[in-house]
Amino acid sequence: MNAFSWLLRRELWENRAAWIAPAATAAILVLIAIAGMFNGVNASFPADLTAELNSESLNPSNVAVAGLGGIAAVFFLVLQIGQYSYLVDCLYAERKDRSILFWKSLPTSDAATVLSKLVFALLVMPAIAALAVLMAQVLIYLLVSVKFSSTAGLLATMWSPAVWGKATGFALYVLLLVELWALPLMAWVLLVSAYAPRSPMLMALLVPLCAAMIEKLLLGSSHVLHTVVGRMGLPHASTGPLISPEKIDWDVTMDFSVLATPELWLGLLVAAGFVWAAIEIRRRRDPAV
Question: How far apart are CA 51 and CA 286, in angstroms?
Answer without folding.
Answer: 70
